Amino acid sequence: MIQRKLEVTYLPFDRTTRVPPGTTVFSAAHWIGLPIDSTCGGRGTCGKCKVRVIRGGADAETADHRQLRPAEIADGWRLSCQARIYQDMTCEVPQLLRVPKAATMGLGRLVILDPNVRKVYLELNEPSMEDQRSDVARLKDALTDEGHGMVAGVSVLRTVPGVFREAGFRVTAVLAGEHLVAVEPGDTTGDCYGVAFDVGTTTLVGTLMNLRTGMAASVLSTLNGQAPFGADVISRISHGMNGPDAIQELQGAVVATMNTILAELYRDTGVSPQQTYEAVVVGNVTMLHLLFGIDPTPLSMAPFTPAFMDQLSIEAREVGLEIHPHGYIQTLPALGAYVGADIVAGVLATGVVREDRLRVFVDVGTNGEIVLGSAQRALATAAPAGPAFEGSQIKCGMRATVGAIEGVQLGDRVELQVIGGDVRAEGICGSGLVDAVAPGAAVRQGIDRDRDQGSDGHPRRDRRRPRPGPARRIVRFLSEPGKREDHRPRPARGRRPHHRGGQLRG
Ligand code: FES
């Protein structure tokens, strides 16, 4: 018997899809490109994925009772990851996953331009009865004369005879290291591009580089397409544990995100995939495993063993990355299961280990890493940072997207900086939280100092009841439903509130 598919409509997007009975509202939305907000990857523990069922119905599950208030449940709110579709349904989605703000600019330092991709223009002697060398030997000899070694795969070799003769033996050889990537007719040495990717757990950043000038042609960032499977590496690994199809699903999601970025970069610059010969990809160890479709499960349990840590060089088409069809993906090596190639890239870029002075390099991403070192010695370690700051277990926590408070100045008055400028404040992200907590720590230190410096030589008891810590004031303000309409923070007596960079509305 053919099972009737059920119709589910998502508002306010007015998007409808048909799914088999038993599908969750969360999965169905994800399949049609409406990723509902989530940090737990559909495990029912983050409470971010709630939707309001307007038509049809779904029973409230245990997780609903844990994450939602009774009034919300009575009003039709359900966790979309728990709500299964057993009848036609319409639901309202208050919050989709949004593209986080990512750093796409930074300070550079001067380096000698020495890209792995080389283009060499060659005017070859045409074959004759006196010179019957093969096409490859002819090419190899000419490249050797120019100081380059060459190895060629059969897929590139297939193109060589045609291009040689079509171009009258005036060709440009494209080499990635010693790999022959392409033979192009005429002199194309003016156009040579590569792309650098930072594959973060939450965000991907792609930079199209002009390898002739060393300048970035365009930079773009977007949300990692794996986000609906969970906010942190452990959630992604857990999903991967469902078997090879799940790993393929995760791989497909990250490759699709990279290709979306590439398409935008190409559109932005007019550069074509055929002119982009190499992708250098860094990321944490789990992300690189998933990019190559390698099971990352051993990374999640002692003794935390990666399948690989060395630098890899593989043809881009093996993973479906849309650069030159014979182009290569290069990765950087990792240092450990949780200190990945992205940190190695950061260490290289900042030169932390080149100088005698001791410096610290901190990458506060979804996974946070710290390197402390100098030219003599460096130490690196890692700890989850994102989930702690950007949602999980923090009442008003959210990612650094539009509506997140990213800056807080606390004095007698509260100044808030909201991502997006003049928009409604929805919660607080990591940088805002640090801003809010840091002065609190300083105040506490001050109290401790007062206590330590009591005039009788004994620890002095502070009889004043301290004001609530600044972070508590912010959280209380954001989470009190009654106060959300009257959204402005209470000014200190006689003072006007002051906002920077955005209006605060509940
Ligand atoms: S509670 Fe549903 S995705 Fe987290």
Could you outline the blueprint of secondary structure elements for this entry?
Blueprint: E1 6-11, E2 15-19, H1 25-31, E3 50-55, H2 62-67, H3 70-74, E4 77-79, E5 89-92, E6 117-123, H4 135-145, H5 154-157, H6 160-166, E7 170-176, E8 179-185, E9 193-199, E10 203-210, E11 215-223, H7 233-240, H8 244-269, E12 276-283, H9 285-291, E13 313-315, E14 328-331, H10 341-350, E15 359-364, E16 367-373, E17 378-384, H11 386-389, E18 404-410, E19 414-418, E20 427-428, H12 430-452, H13 470-479, H14 481-485
Parallel strand pairs: 1-5, 9-12, 12-14, 18-20
Antiparallel strand pairs: 1-2, 3-4, 3-5, 6-7, 7-8, 9-10, 10-11, 13-14, 15-16, 16-17, 18-19
FE2/S2 (inorganic) cluster (FES) is lined by residues 38, 40, 42, 44-49, 79, 81.
Question: Could you characterize the architecture of this molecule?
Answer:
The protein has 506 residues and is an alpha+beta fold. It has four domains: 6-92, Beta-grasp domain (Ubiquitin-like (UB roll), Roll), CATH 3.10.20; 99-115 and 192-382, Domain of unknown function (DUF4445) (Nucleotidyltransferase, domain 5, 2-Layer Sandwich), CATH 3.30.420.480; 117-185, Roll (Ubiquitin-like (UB roll)), CATH 3.10.20.880; 404-485, no CATH class. The chain contains 14 helices and 20 strands. A six-stranded mixed beta sheet has the order 11-10-9-12-14-13. Strands 2-1-5-3-4 form a five-stranded mixed beta sheet. It has a three-stranded antiparallel beta sheet with strand order 6-7-8, with helices on one face. The radius of gyration is 28 Å and the shape is globular. The two termini are 50 Å apart. The chain binds FE2/S2 (inorganic) cluster (FES). FE2/S2 (inorganic) cluster is lined by residues 38, 40, 42, 44-49, 79, 81. Residues 38, 40, 42, 44-49, 79, 81 line the site of FE2/S2 (inorganic) cluster.
